């Protein structure tokens, strides 16, 4: 059996047994409203069996891809660009204009994640309780508006407020997109799609670097009515608002209210993901699923991985322009030379998604990006200061580091059954992500400028620990898959009706 093909954060047999109890318990039969939306759609067929041939499945997948993936990709690219505008602005006059002193810039980097952290679990509950498409769209529009308001900030206090609330409203994006992916795609399709939309972080860095460089050079040559760094925030904020409006129009709450699908295709779109055994959405909170998530060792393995892996992410995201200037390049050059780093991330994630799906080994395939990143950071630390090109190449190599993070995110999307449980595990994973990103900027201490050697060594150690954690996660899944294969091979094992 292929590792991860049938893996789950909680052993599926346990989930099946619990679901069986909930289906046959006479008390719970009275509460038909508690069924998943997919079950309700199937009940409307009055027992009619749906068979989807390969041609129909490909046609549906093509329609779904063309409507969902472009807008999800562009919005996720802005999700990254909106966070990193602070890094561009740091070398475009933000610090003197806001009179930032000491470690105040570091705290601006961290404060985004305080907002993200504070709202992460509530937003996951709202993603379950409220219409998924509409709530996600509302958050996108509000965060675009907030980011635009950064152009009006005149002091440190105002910047604190903007960064905090930007984190609050961006907290819904990653878990919301993971839910959308699990809702519309089969398990075999999800890994590649998560890597595709996450790869637009890299495209966001490419776009941001080019726009920031263009604004900086244009302002220097022709002058500007406002400070160049304010133009960067306005550009990113207004573009986010435009994409949010398109998101409202295109993204439905589920297959059953997708205006761009014919009525008969809506039911087929539900039926094609029946193989996931996860449904398409349930608005009712189930305490037993929360308990199951809290008792699952993989929930905590994912949580601790996210903390440790995102300490480097939080530092590099907010300091990559200053890191490049420390190699001996000018501030304007740092805006332009950061662009290839985004391209490296795009290539690494697309390759990661393809290889993971091809070999059905998402964790093992994702290790390549992390090893590449470790080698890159070692080059930055070890190469002579005079070798600025070699150290810049080392920085580019570090941008392959998100591959394991995305692999685990796709596993939450595809492997965690139960809507309450899925949102709980996602919340814990992203709470760890926030905690790591809060710590990360603090490792780049002002007294270490411009080299930041202690931060660079911290990053190498964190990524080394991540390799060990990923090995443990892979071994756990391998053991669980073998155990579940034996259970399914037992002659007494019986699949429940409508288990999917």
From TrEMBL:
Q: Which Gene3D superfamilies match?
A: MFS general substrate transporter like domains (1.20.1250.20)
**Comp. bias (Polar residues):** 1-11
| Keyword terms of this UniProt record | Membrane, Transmembrane, Transmembrane helix, Transport
According to the lineage, what is the superkingdom?
Eukaryota
Which portions of the sequence form the region Disordered?
1-20
The yes or no answer to whether the keyword Membrane is present is yes
* Compartment(s) of residence: Membrane
Q: What is its main location?
A: membrane
Write down what this protein is called.
Allantoate
